[in-house]
Design a protein that fits this description.
The complex is a heterodimer of chains A (about 220) and B (about 170). Chain A has about 220 residues and is an alpha+beta fold. Chain A contains five helices and eight strands. Chain B contains seven helices and no strands. The chains are: A alpha+beta (about 220), B mainly alpha (about 170). At the A-B interface, helix 1, helix 2, helix 3 and helix 4 of A face helix 1, helix 3, helix 4, helix 5 and helix 6 of B.
């Protein structure tokens, strides 16, 4: 039944969004914690937590504002920081997608310096990739920021991987070595100069010549 | 590298918060920039070893954005209540009072109309009205593009029909 006392109101999206925001200004549920926002933005929330987060955000004006701000932050940061978490642009007809998780540090540097060393592959350059189950490659030795012993590098094998791509660069981002391995370890050849200092290394697991998971970009030291 | 990233993120967070704050933020925009820069530096300096600087700064920026936006929203609420008590007009990003009143009124009816929608349409419309893009709705609910787009379109059409029945849209 039409209420004759009501004034005509435009039903454009902007007005409806404003009305919806005002109707949900005070959410009874607790807001997302900072850590949850971080995990949500970096694509690290599990299925249940993700569902809870979106259920709250879409019924809480405050959290919707935070969500919009983080969306803007991520979109604009991608223009100057290649190391941010991002998802692939979905196909309009996609039924689902492969999840591309957070980028490792200095991905831009890697993308620039390793492009000539790499063999062509389909995976994104320099990104830490996760498979749909969220697998990453765990580095075993050297541990983060530990001293490199005997030029030996080791990581945990990924069951579905057919091989690995290993990269090392200097603090300044210069590539010093890149190779491929079938097993979950490698030895840096003697002719690769390693002056004392800090270095970064990263391992990407490959299947069908495509990166399926990556380690974080991690530092080690040479004394 | 970190310094350059911090400066860019500091400026970006300031812009993002300014959008939330609208005109009301103009007066204390420099304060926000200083607080953001200082806080980012404090977060970074707590870490003795940063194994992935770029990702770390991005994560720090996320946390700082959450804090800054919440502070700005709290500041807006405080100003609104002071404004209401003192009747002194303060700069505000909100539309004029008449429009705000009608938005509040329609908000209550939107809430009722949404409750009557089928579950998926309701979720799609809630996300759309909260500012999600179709891509974000796909990600949030695991829907293909066509489904997400159709649910938003049909849900919004249902919502408008319900509101027109209530006397809106003249």
């Amino acid at each position: 039944m039409v209420d004759p006392t009501r004034r005509p109101v435009s039903l454009d999206d902007e007005r409806l969004m404003e009305g919806y925001r005002l109707a949900h200004a005070d959410s009874a549920e607790p807001h997302l914690a900072e850590a949850e926002w971080e995990q949500l933005t970096c694509g690290e929330l599990g299925t249940d937590a993700l569902a809870r987060a979106h259920a709250h955000i879409t019924t809480c004006a405050q959290c919707a504002a935070v969500h919009r701000s983080l969306t803007s932050l991520t979109a604009e940061a991608a223009q100057f920081d290649a190391g941010i978490a991002r998802r692939p642009t979905p196909s309009p007809f996609a039924k689902g997608w492969m999840y591309v998780g957070g980028l490792a540090a200095a991905a831009a540097i890697f993308a620039a310096v390793f492009v000539d060393l790499r063999e062509p592959r389909n995976g994104p350059v320099g990104e830490v990739m996760r498979n749909p189950q969220g697998t990453t490659v765990s580095l075993v030795a050297p541990r983060p920021d530990a001293v490199l012993e005997g030029r030996q590098l080791a990581w945990q094998a990924v069951p579905t991987a057919e091989g690995y791509e290993l990269r090392i660069n200097t603090m300044a981002g210069d590539a010093i070595w890149a190779t491929r391995a079938v097993t979950a370890n490698a030895t840096i050849p003697p002719d690769v100069a390693l002056p004392p200092g800090r270095y970064y290394w990263q391992v990407t697991a490959l299947r069908d010549n495509i990166g399926i998971a990556s380690s974080a970009l991690t530092a080690f030291r040479v004394n | 590298m970190i310094r350059a990233l911090l400066e860019k993120y500091g400026a970006l967070i300031r812009r993002v918060v300014a959008r939330v704050g609208g005109r009301a933020l103009q007066d204390n925009r420099d304060d926000v920039a200083q607080v953001v820069a200082l806080s980012l530096w404090q977060q970074i300096s707590r870490e003795q070893t940063i194994t992935h600087p770029s990702s770390y700064v991005y994560r720090a920026a996320i946390r700082e954005t959450v804090r800054a936006v919440r502070q700005e929203l709290a500041r807006q609420r405080t100003h609104s209540s002071i404004d209401a008590e003192s009747a002194v007009p303060l700069p505000s990003a909100a539309p004029d009072p008449e429009a705000a009143a009608s938005s509040a009124e329609i908000g209550r009816d939107i809430k009722s109309a949404l409750a009557a929608l089928p579950s998926d349409r309701q979720r799609a419309v809630r996300a759309h009205l909260s500012g999600y893009s179709v891509e974000q709705i796909m990600q949030a609910y695991g829907w293909p593009y066509q489904k997400a787009r159709n649910l938003v379109a049909r849900g919004m059409a249902d919502l408008r029909s319900a509101l027109i029945k209530e006397g809106y849209g003249g």
